[in-house]
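SAMPLE LOG
Freezer: B-3
Tube label: C17
Construct: single chain, 427 aa
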Amino acid sequence: MITMSDFFCGAGGSSTGAVQVPGVRVELAANHWRLAVETHNTNHPDARHDIADLSQVDPRRYPKTDIAWLSPSCTNHSIAKGARRATQDSTLFGAPDAAAERSRATMWDVVRFAEYHRYRYLLVENVVDAREWVLWPAWSSALTALGYEYRVVSLNSMHAQALGPAAPQSRDRLYVVAWRRGETAPDLNRWARPMADCPQHGRVRAIQAWRREGRTVGKYKSQYTWRCPRVECRNIEVHPAVRPAADIIDWSLPVTRIADRPRPLADKTMARIRAGFAAYARPLVVPVEGREGKRARPADEPMRTCTARNETGLAVPPFVAELRGGGSKYRPVSRPLSTVTASGNHHGLVHGGVVGSVEDLGFRMLTPAEYAAAMAFPSEYVLLGTKRERVRLAGNAVTPPAARDLVAAVVEAMTGEEITPRLELAA
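STRUCTURE (predicted):
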């Protein structure tokens, strides 16, 4: 039996993804947050569970497994935290924050547990900025000293689509996939490279093209793009199909007209809504009566001939306003969401309707269920706690499709039994 252990798993994303791979059983899930463990227990009752700060416990407390998925605390590796990366370095005149250092030190718990259990395969998940940690060379050398070979994978969750649908969210993460010397190396070229359509060659398995020579870790679009592997088309840039944010929105939920809100939206939020309205919400002049064949036209084009009947409506496509952080301020629902974080509800959904101004738009916040769906948790997955806690559980988690595809690569290598990626079947 192939078994797996979760480590610092927020809301069970790695477990939920792993159990989608044939032959995988979750042996243990552990987390320092009681609510995360209770949530995991609710959804994976057959697994063992432990509420513990794993940085404070002896590895002998837990059983040996073939595979370990380890997700050290990522908060203080991320630039989104708000601190400059330089503060990670301890100097005579600028000692780092103690809590931040403890957060980064959890990376060493990966080494500590691997030293004792000698897992056959090891998967470590973190933010991309973890690669810039000043102690990364020492950390990776420790894995090598323990007899591991490894590969660092940069994978955006919206491109983890090998064994099933991806998450409808742009979420860049770093994954270290390690294997003991003597074990078969996972074929990550099959499992971590999405399929895309090349205008000249049709369906191809895209390759990462780095914008800066020598870089091997980074974020989609910022540091790398996907390109056709064939030179005949000069390795043209290709775009893997992605799921839109519209996939996870519950369109049946009511929204409040912005002008009717008892508490006005913040000025910055309104500025983002106005910018999004100008960029994406082109009003449509829509014929609601009359003969067949009439079509809607953009409102910034001339209207069709007016008649004596009131038969024209004004419709506005919805878009997502991003209320804080991140590298963007708004995006249409036809694109994946920006990264879901654990810091709180920070995506607002703007509904279309009959509008005369931005204040006439409907507006509501996304629900915890929509956040869970944005992370690609199954609809039956139960998140416990308050609204804020459920959003935090989702934002702290690993997107199940990313875990599913990387664990599938490892299981295939470990067992020697080929697992056919879904997109190869569809090609």
